[in-house]
Amino acid sequence: MKVKKIAIVSLSSGILGEDAVAHERELGLKRLKDYGLKVEVMPHSLKGLDYIKEHPEKRAEDLLAAFRDDSIDMILCAIGGDDTYRLLPYLFDHDELKKAVSQKIFLGFSDTTKNHFMLNKVGLKTFYGQAFLTDVCELDREMLPYSKSYFEELINTGTIKEIHPSDVWYEERSDFSRQAVGSPRISHPNTGFELLRGEKQFTGEILGGCIESLYDFFDNSRYEDTVSLTQKYNLFPSLDEWRGKILLLESSEAKSTPDKYRKMVRALANYGIFDVVNGVLVGQPQDKAYYEEYKNILLEEIKNTDLPIVYNLNIGHSTPRCIIPFGTQAEVDMNQQVIKF
Length: 341
Description:
Layout: E1 5-9, H1 22-34, E2 38-41, H2 48-54, H3 56-68, E3 74-77, H4 88-92, H5 96-100, E4 105-108, H6 113-121, E5 127-128, H7 132-136, H8 145-157, E6 162-163, E7 168-170, E8 187-189, E9 194-197, E10 201-210, H9 211-215, H10 226-232, H11 239-242, E11 246-250, H12 258-271, E12 279-283, H13 291-301, E13 309-313, E14 324-325, E15 329-333, E16 338-340
Parallel strand pairs: 1-2, 1-3, 3-4, 4-5, 10-11, 11-12, 12-13
Antiparallel strand pairs: 5-14, 6-16, 7-8, 9-13, 10-15, 15-16
Helix pairs in contact: 12-13
């Protein structure tokens, strides 16, 4: 399926509507139009940080409207943020999401992890790993080549066939101003997927996302009602539902300390997830922060020593970024350094 029309939604942060990112927004919209795509920025998604923060019901409205509009083939998240869980009542109290949802491409990452879980709950297969501001609006002269190849595959075919490691990884920018337009990122050679332990080949449907977002399912320190709300709507799948899946974990731009990372992995371990999944895929940390520490924590905290753990995927908050289909059978093959869908 070739995408003809994209809807852009702000489901977490409303930064897309701020003047500070106008140059990025223009760049991204031009790139999408250069692909021959029609773009609809949903009605509330440009209303800025304060409005979006105060109106979760309007964010939900935009998402539902994008699903109901038959002319829209793909829903692209503006960026992540930190409170998209607040959409839950507006999407689930009267089965709003279930009634509106239709087969479309949904793409986002970071806090959008929770939106992926919402859509998983109503049976939609989604795509994880890129967003409008972070990828399409890349300030370099074009999108980062590796990210671009996956984005183009998705809009041209409606699917992702396989992912390979990137040859390089990039440092995160410190300057996103208008002056930085056209400037390249600093790049380093990348070492490929790393098998920390377990079988070299395993299969399953992938689900997961940003570990800081997943931790909110178990911990109230960011917002006092994340645990109760996500439990009320059974947003985190049961162990039965996790059985046979592959868990994806990637870490945010917050660069959580090793102590915090250990707490987050342990919360998942205590839930029992590592006893039922077929494998774990872990994204490269942004700027390779705590690269070795995170690796050791995974090996120490995941007590199931037979469970395959693959590290250093180009997914999530490190650049460049591939796109991973959720809910589609995946074959991980470390001999070939490939994940096929």
